[in-house]
Amino acid sequence: MSDNLARQFLLREDVTFLNHGSFGACPRPVFETYQAFQLELESEPVEFLGRRLNDMMRIPREAVAAEIGAAPTNIAAVINATSGLNIVAQSLPLQPGDQILTTDHEYSALEKTWAYVCRKTGAEVVVVKVPMPLISEEAFTDTIIAGMTERTKVLFLSHITSPTALVFPIERSIAEARKRGIWSVIDGAHTPGHIPLALDALGADFYSGNCHKWMMTPKGSAFLHARPEVQGLLDPLVISHGWTKESKDPGALGAFGNSPFIDGIEVQGTRDPSAWLTVPAAIQYRRENDWASVQDHCRQLAQDTARRLRELTGLEPLSSPEFSAPQMVAMPIPECDTAEIHKLLFERYRVEIPVFKWQDHHIARLSVQGYNSRPQMDRLLDALSELLDLRPSRRRAGGEG
């Protein structure tokens, strides 16, 4: 992308940052809006938090709802997707013998969440192995449905997976879960601002996504989406001023005039809401910079870099192109000490990228955002070629021109 766009981010110039997927990165104009909210809060905390905040919170709720195809009344602000999914996991009335059906591609923090819930309730997690490489929606869906039994109470899936950067085709699995009376819980940490969403149409019972990754808000901005019919199942992790004893009544009003779902989750006493309040500014930033074109450029750069590395390694991709996340790709590398490679990439080459082992695969997970460039991809491939002793002749054949 252009140097001008790269200069709009706050990232260090001495680091090649190829890990947007982990924590995101915030453009300077959006970050300045964030700081302005913080200064406004500190200038008169009682007015900001006590008299104005309830109305202010509605504005980003409506803005993000329009972006993700949802009614604003079905969304509550949380600090991250893990927090939102914990609200769901710890609220559902599971009992001994109940099963949570999931896959072998899930995020480790949520694997721990469900393990914790099972310890408390006596339920159990059932993990199905997704056919790899992922090249067929039918094979994926058939595998998920085959794992459903009369004991299955929860279907938990990532929309875009963290370790493997795959876009799971979850629509038919969610529909089947609904037919069987199974709650569908979707980890959408990597989806808002990354792929198009229409959450009300998708029909998942619960869906939590981050705004501070690909939508590029400051850290601590995310949402929990819940269908109206299941909002009454949820209890906030923190009981505070927003909770009422009528919180399970879907027709009731919450303590601050919103639904019990929104007020119970959002009103937790003193905290800084500034990251959430910047959601409209982040959406506006994307519009002003023609982000659809930026994303298309990033997708091409990500896929081209993955192709060039495949020509160096001879290793097959984890999926066909339609199931690879547009701006994030898990690239197989030869067997190695992944922790050491990760360390050397940063210490020797100043390249920030996750390198890890997943099942039998050794992976470098590349994220490409608008501040990245072709020379940075060249630097990554040069570094991996040296560290992994990939043959230069094969690298030249990959088309570095």
From TrEMBL:
Domain named Aminotransferase class V: residues: 27-353
Keyword set, alphabetical order: Pyridoxal phosphate
Xref: SUPFAM superfamilies: PLP-dependent transferases
Domain of life: Bacteria
Name recorded for this polypeptide: Aminotransferase class V domain-containing protein
Species this chain originates from: Devosia soli
